[in-house]
Amino acid sequence: MARRKKIYEGKAKILYEGPEPGTIVQYFKDDATAFNAEKKDVIDGKGVLNNRLSEYFMTGLNQIGVPTHFIRRLNMREQLVRNCEIVPLEIIVRNYAAGSLSKRLGIAEGTQLPRPIIEYCYKDDALGDPLVSEEHIAAFGWASQQDMDDILSLALRVNDFMSGVMLAVGIRLVDFKIEIGRVFEGDFQRLIVADEISPDSCRLWDIETGQKLDKDVFRRDLGNLADAYSEVARRLGVLPKSNVAKPTLIN
Fold first, then answer.
1. What single-letter DSSP state applies at residue 251?
2. Entry's NCBIfam families (predicted)?
C-alpha cells in the first residue's frame, strides 16, 4: 500500500489524506477508551464493526435526505468521507436518562424523558469536553444562530431515523452524540453529519432485558465489548455471523 499522509489521529480513528481532492480516508482503530482516555484497551475487531455500522447508519441517513460526510466504504477498516470543517461541538441527543444526565440531575437511569433533550459539549479533550450552553456557543462564535437552528434540525432527524431503525430490531436508543461539519460550495455553506455513528457514540439497550450493547460494556466492565457490538451488527444484518468478530487487519 502506498504511503499516505496522516492528517490526524484520535482515540478511535486515524484520518488520512484522501485519493481525490476534498476527500479523507477514515480508518477505524481497535482502541477503546473511556473517562477521557483514563481507561484504555484494545478490543479485537472493534474497528471493523464500527466501520461497517457507521457505514450502515450514514448510508441510511443519506438515503432519507439527511446529508452526511460518508461517500463509500473502502475496505473492512476504512471509508472515504468528504472533507469538512468540524464545528467544535459534540451534539448529544437524549431520549432516556443515563450517564452524566442521571448523575447531574439525580434522575434514575432508564427514565424516559418527556421529549428528546439536546445538549452541547465543547470539543476539547484537555478540558474533558465540558457541557456548554447556546449562550457560550454564540458568545465565542463556535456557531451562528442559523447554524444552531440547522444543527437542532439535523440532530432531531438523526434521532427519528436511528430510533426507528433500532426499535425494529428490539433495541432502545437511549442517547447518542454526533458531530457536524461545514462544507462550502462556492459562497454557500451547508452543514452535514460527520465523524461516525456507532455503538461507540450511542447508548443502546435491549428492549426486553435492558442489556447494554454499547461502550458502557467497556466503561462498566459488563462483559466483552466486541460481543456487544457484534450483537448490534447481527440484528441489523450488517455482517454475516461468521464474520462479525473476525477482522481483516489493514496496515
1. -
2. purC
Q: What is the DSSP letter of 12?
A: S
Tell me how far apart the alpha carbons of residues 202 and 191 are, in angstroms, rounded to a whole number.
Answer: 21
**Measured between alpha carbons, how far is 111 from 83 in angstroms, rounded to an integer?**
38
Contacts of 101 (CB under 8 A, 6+ apart): 94, 107, 117, 119, 175
Domains of the chain, by residue range, sit at 6-84+225-243, 85-206
Q: Pick from 42, 61, 95: which is nearest to 192 by CA?
A: 61
Cβ–Cβ under 8 Å, residues 227 and 45: no
Nine-digit cell string for 89: 461541538
Q: pLDDT tens digit string along 117-143? A: 999 999 998 999 999 999 999 999 999
pTM, 2 dp: 0.92
